[in-house]
Amino acid sequence: MQGKHCRVYSFGLGVEDRSLERSLSRSGCEIHCFDPSLKQPHLLQADMWLHRLSVDWRDPNPSFVAQHQHVKTILNEFGHAQVDVLKADMESAEWKILENLVLESVLDSVGQMLMEFHLHWAGFEVGGDDPSVVRYWYSLLKELERANFRLFHVYIDPNKPQLFLHQNILNASSSYTLSWVNTQWKP
Asked: Distance between CA 160 and CA 164 in Å, rounded?
């Protein structure tokens, strides 16, 4: 897409609200939404590319045939060296996806990252006692910091239960959207 000044990857499972993506599209950004529940493999709709791909290692809806790939593979297959904005709401798979971004050395290819984190349980493929889970989460957040990402916005969903690892905690939420910017980003 020539003339587009930014590229956005949005990963989600049956995401109904694409208001951010629509707004960025109207601003001239190239938008790629990845959702394994789509019926068609690739579809251009309202100036956004919709792809039946998942970055999760398991299909949340096995009645649909979906391809599962890592972000680095997706970047390579689409011929994209960088993504200006990476958005993910993966319904408790976000910790393993973040771990894969670190392990694949993809973070230096991302300008901003917006991820919704669910804290009511450890997440897919994350095990151990509560202190071990919190240490794992903390280690991933420290890796983001080491990769020059700085937290610039936190959204706490007041409509979500006040749960943290299955425990009711006053003034907590089970869902947080965290937004980071890569301070060393060079588009």
From this structure: 11
Cross-strand bridge partners of residue 181? 112, 150
Angle at 119 between CA 148 and CA 114, to 5 degrees: 35
Q: Using an 8 Å Cβ cutoff, are 146 and 182 in contact?
A: no
Token code pair at residue 5: 């000044």
Could you tell me if 87 and 11 are in contact, meaning their C-beta atoms sit under 8 angstroms apart?
yes
Contact 31, 46 (CB under 8 A): no
Mind giving me the DSSP string for 86-150? EEEE-TT-HHHHHHHHHHTT-GGGEEEEEEEEE-SS--TT--S-HHHHHHHHHHHHHHHHHTTEE
Report the distance separating Cα 175 and Cα 163, nearest Å.
9
Give tens-digit pLDDT for 117-161: 877 665 555 667 878 888 888 899 999 999 999 999 998 878 877
> For residue 115, with 0-12 CB atoms within 10 Å meaning exposed, 13-18 middle and 19 or more buried, which class applies?
buried
Residue type, 70: H
pTM (predicted TM-score): 0.80
DSSP helix/strand/coil, 19: helix
